[in-house]
TrEMBL record:
PANTHER family in the cross-refs: BILE ACID BETA-GLUCOSIDASE-RELATED (PTHR12654), NON-LYSOSOMAL GLUCOSYLCERAMIDASE (PTHR12654:SF0)
Protein's recorded name: Glycosyl-hydrolase family 116 catalytic region domain-containing protein
GO MF annotation, one: hydrolase activity, hydrolyzing O-glycosyl compounds
Domain Glycosyl-hydrolase family 116 catalytic region positions: 506-784
Positions of the Glycosyl-hydrolase family 116 N-terminal domain: 78-395
Amino acid sequence: MNNQNARRVFLKQAGLLSAALSLSTLPVVGKYLLKPQQPGHNIPVDKNLDPQWVQSLYNRESNPTTYFKSKNELKYIGMPVGGLHTGTVYAGGDGRLWLWQIFNESMEGVHEGINPVTVTWNDGKSNRQIRPRDGAAYVAPPEANKMRVLEQGFAIQIKIGDKTIIKELKEDDWDEVSFLGSYPTCLIRYESKDCPVGVSLSVGSPFIPLDVDNSSLPMTFLHVMVVNKSKENISVTVTGWLENGANKLSAKPGNGKKHNKHIATTNNSSIFMSFDAIDPKLKTSTDAGTMCLTLHDKASGVHTGFNPTISNDSFNKYNNNDSLAEAPDKLIGSISATSKMAPNDYFSPKYSISWHFNHPHPQLIKLVPDAAKGYYYGKKFKDALEVSKYVQTNFNYLTDTANLWTYWQNASTLPYWFLDRTFLNLGTLATANTYRFASGRFWSWEGIGACAGTCTHVWQYAHAMARVFPTLERDMRQRVDLGTGFYPDSGAIRFRGENENRPAIDGQAGTILRFYREHQMSEDDTFLKTNWPSIKKAVKFMMAQDKNGDGMIDTPMENTLDAVWEGEIAWIVGLCIAAAEASKAMALEMNDTEFAKTCKTFVTNGRKNMEQHLFNGEYFIHRPDAKEGRQKLGSYNTCHIDQVYGQSWAFQVGLPRILDKDKTISALKALWKYNFTADVGPYIQTHLGGRPYVLPGEGGMIMNTNPANEAKPYGENTTWQLGYFHECMSGFEHQVAAHMMAEGMVDESLILTRMIHDRYHPAKRNPFNEIECSDHYARAMASYGTFISACGFTYHGPKATIGFAPKIDPKHFSTPFITAKGWGSYYQSRTEEGQHHGMEILYGTLKLEKLNFELIKKREVKSVTVLVERLTDKLVKIPVPATFSVKDNQLTITLNSVFNFIKMDRLKIDVKC
């Protein structure tokens, strides 16, 4: 979160309002007003959840999650379907594209969030004005039909006998429209009783894990499928159109002309869209650029000045010549494809839309100098036509490999809804929240247009990008955390790069853990060797914040709740212990044994003292500073959502336990008891000041609660940040869900994750936009950590080690996985004779020497057989010599030498018991 003045003013005002409301209801004794008290703790211990509903959360379901027109579930849907870091383009519930936040207007104080509009919310006591960064899109979600910045769409013309039917691919034209959306691709189906064809539209970008460049193209695929369901021969024409968006926002009458040009090759037809500016300033405005509509098939007709009023004339009139339109009039281009279809035939014209707007906002350039030379895609391509040509040249690779990744859901046994919720936040990378500049540097807000500088204490929660695109994270560690944002003398890491001048203690510790994760997600130890001297300085700085040498950080420093807390704070102490444990592991790999001993001492002392002094018998607390006491804001004896966050992080990177298991689980159970509720309504109506990221009738986990009903639980002089304590923020909730899953509290993990999922049901708001400080908030990518925990996935590339210990139905389990250089599918099953494990490499390569699995049932292992099936000209079976060992129910298989797996290899392991 951010300490921007405007945000402070909002929460400060909210706090004053809350205080005023509280005072207005206080009893009066004589002429004296009674001293105000903290509202009582009112979260029920009994969660009153239907056991059958809880059990249903484990179900795989027969079909992926689908939303329907008939259930009024389409109007808020907005799945990001563009390339990473190229702006926001949404696919709506009926398949039409909307929002078009590609014009570089997103900027703090200028255009924050999806829609820069302040809305009114009644918090149960009064009306409050909610800005985009404070949850406006949660209270009043933007609707697709109200934010169609550019004209875009499809229509089909069907000629059957002497009858002609024309239908646009939009909600109003069909009896039923269904949206099946599993990021990064959505499938929309259209059905009507009077229509002799079945129609579907697939929309998405060429999203390919590990392949950053091809996943970052400024474009969207739109593939139409038409099936002849009738018993007659028919003729079908599909027409797709797009408005010229060049200088859409800046061009005024007399400024110039919009220009559409038809460009054809043997098997492709494009309309290149530009703006002929009279005013030179318009050539460098943020919306100056080009767009391109392409049919990757043979066209039956092109119209560079199309009228989207659907009629027979629209389909029968074409114009291949250049078209011009005076600004700001609309200029729309269309491309049609026609096919004769016998019964049961299908017709699948494939379109794409590309864009190129390479002029970052001037204020962004002031924030981050790397922006001055434009974007990475702007360096790679000169305009949208070049993007389209690249797509044409690489069409098969882009579509086939992206489609192969969708295998991740088809091959998994995990529930569809769970996969959706834990993975879809990666869509944040395909919004105007993130950028990749021409230098190759990655940079982001916290949420769209709000809180600058790829904040360390936010991004350390976000596991998704590091697991799917690890090169981006490694570059950020080197270029920013150990570069632009690094103080080499002290080892401090500025928590917003060049946009800040001080470290945040949780950001420092979390970044150290990220160094270890990025090392693990590398194929060799080059990253760690190169950066170890600076990493070591960062670790020393962190440990130096323990003033009395007891292993518990006690130096007041900024944290993610935008405050400087005094004393010894369990979640910060534990996070630093986890960071020190990771540092010990890195030091040992670097043969730095003396420093490894230093880290071990810190961990040993920290764990002992944290468990002795910060555990109250039920959960971990914040011990006040011995001199300052509880004067300043803090969590103190309250039950804080991140209290065992360090142990959660340790699970994510396969570290040994850093906290006692029984005490840790007790703390998680306390969070469940005191902070989780299936209806936050009663709580947020009595504990005012928080932002509306969850509304009455919805469930979630409150950030901080006061089970002891202390009068001043958060200190004597509370500040505006107190409002955070009464909120539900999904990134923190995902962190807890990931931890619960790892500890075997599977019911609780699934329930909490499902509560978030249901809060973002499309009947209420956009399911693809988890909101905290503005839209598509980065911390929500912590959800991927719950997926990692559900798989029990561990990986260490330099050590050529991989492991799985699934928490959901381990007897019959399969999942996708991603490593440093390759990805694929893993499965395991149990039989009476033993258990079976297998892996299929679908992309890239994978080096393995050691594999770790849990025994699905405790029994003696008699033998292990390892076999690789490799498809060359024929299927070759390669026996792989290996040894095995069993300890604490963990089976470790060690290959006699490192085996190099290649694409389409299948590893089969047979364990006899």
